[in-house]
Amino acid sequence: MKIRAIELVNLRRFGGQRARIDGIGDGISVLAQPNEFGKSTFFDGLHALFFQHHRSKTAQTRALQPHAGGAPEAAVELEIEGRRFRLEKRWLSRQSARVLDDAGRVIAQEDEAEAWIERLTGQGLAGPSGLLWVRQGLFGLEPEGSSAADKAERERAFSTRRDLVASVAGEIDAMTGGRRMDLVLTRVAEALARLATGTLKPRAGGEWARAVDEAAGLEAARVGLEDKARRLTEALAQRAGLMRNLQALSDPEAQAREAAGLSAAQEALQAAERHAEQMRRAASDLRLAQLTAEQSAAEIRALQDLRTRLRRAAEAEARTAAELDKVDALTAEAAGQERAAAARHDAAAGASSAAQQALDHARRAHLATAAQARAIGLASQLARAEAQRNLLEEQVAARAVFRITPAALARAEEAQAVFDRLTAQEESRHVAIRLDYAGEARVRLDGQPLEAGSLRVQRVTRLDLPGIGGMTIDPGLGAGDGLAETRARAGDALQAALGACEAPDLAAARRALSEAQRLDAAIEATRAMLAELAEGGLDALRARLAAARAEAGDTADGPAGDLAALEAALAQARAEEQAALAVRREAEARHGQLREARAGALAAHRAAETAQREIAAEAGDLVDLAARLQILSEAQGQQAEACAAAAALLERLRAEAPDLDTARAAVARLRAVCEGRQRDRASCETTLAGVNGVIGAWADEGIEEALDELRGREAAAKARAARYEREVKSLALLREALEAARRAARDTYFGPVLRELNPLLSILHPGAQLQIDDSSLLPVALLREGQAEGLDILSGGTREQLAVLTRLAFARLFARAGRAVPVILDDALVHSDDDRIEAMFTALHRVALDQQIIVLTCRQRAFASLGGARMDVTVSAL
Amino acid sequence: MAYSFLHSADLHLGKAFGNFPETIRGRLREARHGALQRLAAAARQAGARDVLLAGDTFDAETPSPETLRHALRAMAAASDLRWFVLPGNHDSLAASELWRRFLQDAPANLVVLTRPEPIEMESAVWLLPAPCTQRRPGRDLSEAMSAPTPPGALRIGLGHGAIMDFSGEEGGLGIIPPDRARLSGLDYLALGDWHGRMQVGPATWYSGTPEADGFKHDLAAGALAVTLGAAGTPAKAEVRPTGQFQWLRPALDVLPGDAVAERLAQCLPPEAERRDVLMRLDVSGRLALAERAALEAALAAVAPDFGWFEADLSRLASEVQDGDLDMIDRRGALREAAESLLAQSRDPARPGAERELAEAALARLYALVQEVPA
Questions:
Q1: CA-CA 20 to 30 A from A498: which of A1, A521, A598, B147?
Q2: Which has the closest alpha carbon to A620: A206, A191, A310?
């Protein structure tokens, strides 16, 4: 479809006028006129012709009316697939709509004309053609003022955007399911939201969650109640058991049997106890008889013992008295022998003492003589030692003079060698000058005359030649290399080394070291000699001498005598003394023994006398003693007979005795049985009462009925929850399928759009791409160099350019689909700078190759470079 | 002489029906209690003075005091009748507290048969009860029915449990020999346990429960009015309906193209009866999406008519026809989504549960798309 002419009659700016644009060609057509010319009136009129029903009386329609009133009219001449058509509409008064063919025939009018237009636009009034109407204010470029006009313009812009979105959505609807898809998805989402969370878990408060919670609650209650029911069942079983026990415990026959048994056992026990008493008495009698017999026997034994003891005491007294007498005699004899031995011993001891004294005197005399000889020797040794010590002191003093050491000498020798080497080097550098004088004149050096002969010059030296001048001698080689200084330092080092040797030269040093070493050897020899003579030192030697002299002085008090004879005499005297002492000791021992024997004999005799008296006192009259023995012997036989009789009786009773313990155990057992029955019955009744109470209380609750109900409700709740879960899964699957299909459709839809858009975009922004929002279906970001820039942060000019490019892309898309429609720009690109607007013009021309573009603008200069065909408006009065 | 009595069993008074919604739960429990009155009426109509309850009068061993008391009051109210109550497996003698309380407040016209001993109900009519000692006694208690009675007397056995060639209500193996009546010389053996009515032998019957409690049995609940002639003559048992609620479980097998609404209507009871009907409809076969949606809508429409209604569509497959997806959309994302779900539902590599989910999601999509305006 291409627009070839537009005609407005009495429409807004052109009240009472007919305004017409003719000859609109293919490609770009431009209407560049100043403001208030009526360009937007053409825009609005054309828009109304396509999108406002001829019977519409909306505010938007009434806005077409000029101030003077009247019915606005609009007409457009179109070329469709090579044929010309004219569309006409009149609004508000005598409304009409007509479609005429190129022959001027009306091919449709009124509603049919509207239907024809609707088919032409393809998708109804909100169809894709709406995309192509671009006017200032799109994409947020509305006026920002607060005046009524600004507000109205913003509203119009918003309306335009909305229309734009609607038209985009309309096309997308065809691909994505559109509003129906939205509604279905909304209902699916609502149904899901009622039941589940975003992660498909039961939503709190939802039916599913309620079913799950109810099932969980019922399950918990059921488990609790099952436990209670189990305990009730156990209590019932316990009660049944208790009742059986109680019945058995209350059995009268069993009770009677037990009572009879107890009575019989008690009688048996009493009989056994009586028999046991008889046995106890018989045993007591036997014991009494046995004790009596034993007492008699003991008394007889005591009397017989007393009589024996009395006899033995008399014999002992006589024997001890004789023994005492014998000991007395021996004791007197021993005392005499002891006295004689003591006298002999005392004499021998005196002789021994005298021999000892003589021997001691002789020994002291001999010691004094030896000490005197030793003192003489020691005095001589001391004198030699003192001489050696004096020699040593002299040698040490002589050695102290020499401080030289072999190391010091070695350093001096080394320093001498260095010095000599340097001296030789220095001397090798001397210039030898020989002075031979013929006259008086003398060469002077440093003011001093030099005699004839050789002169060695080591450094630059000036010689004064009187009457002639001077002569400077420069040895040349090695000058300035510091050899002299090195040699001087070596000389200093040599002197220091010799100083350390305390020698003027190296030979003296060597002699000094030799002397010092000789002295060291002499000192060592002297010290060895001194040590040999005075081991431990001179003081020790002097002390030994003093001691020897003292010893000689102390013992020199008489002649020495014959030591051997004296020692033999002393030995003889001591032997005799020892022998006398042994005899004396033997005599003393025998006397002591006899004294002790006498004391023992005396004590024994006295004891025997005492015992005899005591036994006699105990026995009393001896006649009575014999009588008593006779009586007791006679009674002993009777007592034996009594014992035998008692023992026989006891034996018989024992043989006949019943088992008392068994009888007692039987009674205890049977009594315990009877008491246990009573106790068990009481306990059983008590327990039963408790169990009955529990059962009664629980039975009142109708546990099993409640449990059965809970089980049913739990099963129903779980089934309901399972149904809801299946419902949620089904809805989730449906949602997933719907969204996947819509995504795929959008991708399918936007793919071609972007393929058209990106080449246009690259004209302005090479390499950039647009990102299109999935829900708003509009560009939302510009992707440049890997960065996504939201449209809202882009400049107004860029946003406006993107808006225009987007529409151009859509237009190309439609054109490729064989549905080419014009693009109409009304005061678009007002925010673009000069460079960008040039690029936009290029883009427009690129699209205009197969697309009609109508540009309405007030920027005549700026759009001069757009090119394209210029349109003229013909205005005529009606 | 002729002797008539009413044979019933398995009242299961106090049964909780917890797996049903609260509204119907209360009604079901009340209906079980009302069965006592209806039994009394049936006995009177049959000219019987004695009502023999062959076990499981109570559902639990420890029913609530209200259940117990209400039963006693209802029996006492029918003072012109005698109630012979036999402990069954649900209310066996092990439920000592139950029977202690029951006997404690028992009216004069109530006989609790706690001992396996013959009772002379009236002259020359002897009742030979075999009360359950435990929930699962593990032995043939009906041997007690061989106890001697005076010659020429009518012998009526009263027992509870499954017979040997027939499993019990709860699936347990039977112990009572099927020819117990012959073995013990019984003129009639009144049995309980099987909730459906069934004749086991010439003189042996399960009366079934007087008030149905599940979908297991098809016959209408009732009691047996039994008339015995002279000893040795055949017993005559006549059914007396006593049930309030019907438990129906019809099957509806459908195919694409069926008139679904009409087929459904044929499965349903008259509208006036539906309030006292519990219905579980088993739908099988396959339907197109539109037909399935129509069926689901029809089911949702009739469900409130019933005391309880549930339709099991798990065995109903959805058949997607050419036009079904067009009804969702001819092209675009909705169509793509529908085709994706259809492919998933038909993908044999997927587990059955996933295919069912995909099928359900597709059906849901179809329904949602129909709801939203084009």
A1: A521
A2: A310
Q: Determine whether the interchain pair B337/A734 forms a contact, defined as Cβ–Cβ distance below 8 Å.
A: yes
Per-chain mean pLDDT for chain A: 83
Q: What is the pLDDT of residues A550-583, one digit of tens each?
A: 887 766 566 667 878 888 888 898 898 899 899 9
Nearest CA distance, A695 vs chain B (angstrom): 7
In chain A, the number of structural domains is 1
Residue of B135, B365, B368 to mutate, interface with A, max A Cβ within 10 Å = B368
Counting one residue from chain A and one from chain B, the pairs whose CB atoms sit within 8 A come to 159
Residue A136 has pLDDT above 60, yes or no: no
Contact of A820 with A26, CB cutoff 8 Å: no
Choose from B25, B336, B344, B356 for mutation: most chain A CBs within 10 A: B336
The answer to whether the CB atoms of A702 and B62 lie below 8 A apart is: yes
State pLDDT tens for residues B246-297. 999 999 999 988 999 999 999 999 999 999 999 999 999 989 888 888 999 9
User: Contact, A81 vs A88, CB < 8 A?
Assistant: no
| Structural domain spans, chain B | 3-241, 246-371
Tokens, residue A659: 């088992």
Judged by a CB distance cut-off of 8 A, whether residue A187 touches chain B is: yes
Q: Minimal Cα–Cα distance from B56 to chain A, Å?
A: 14
The domain containing residue A851 runs over which residues? 2-168+765-877
Q: Measured between CB atoms, which of A187, A188, A744 is closest to B336?
A: A744
How far B90 CA sits from the closest chain A CA (Å)?
11
Would you state the torsion angle of the CA atoms of residues A433, A436, A441, A447, taken in this order, to the nearest 10 degrees?
A: 30
Place of tokens 């029913």: B63
Residues in chain A: 878
A144 occurs within a structural domain:
yes
Identify the bridge partners of residue B51 per DSSP, sorted by sequence position.
B6, B83
Any CB–CB contact under 8 A between B15 and chain A? yes
Nearest-CA distance B369 → chain A (Å): 6
Dig out the tokens for A598 from the structure: 């006498």
Sign of the alpha-carbon dihedral angle for A119, A123, A128, A130? positive
CB neighbours (10 Å) of residue A256? 10
Give the number of other Cβ atoms within 10 Å of residue A361's Cβ. Answer: 16
With left for phi above 0 and alpha for psi between -120 and 50, is residue A456 left, alpha or beta?
Answer: beta
Residue A433 φ/ψ, nearest 5 degrees: -120, 135
Question: CA–CA separation, B206 vs B200, rounded Å?
Answer: 7
- DSSP state letter for B142: G
A104 falls within a domain: yes
Classify residue A757: in a domain, yes or no. Answer: no
User: B3-241 sits in which CATH class?
Assistant: alpha beta
Residues of B whose CB is below 8 A from A705: 14-16, 59-60, 62-64, 67
Contacts of A711 in chain B (CB under 8 A): 16, 18-19
Smallest CA–CA distance from A233 into chain B, residue: B95
| Highest mean predicted confidence (pLDDT) among A155-164, A487-496, B5-14 | B5-14
Q: Flag whether A143 is in a domain.
A: yes
CATH number, residue A838: 3.40.50.300
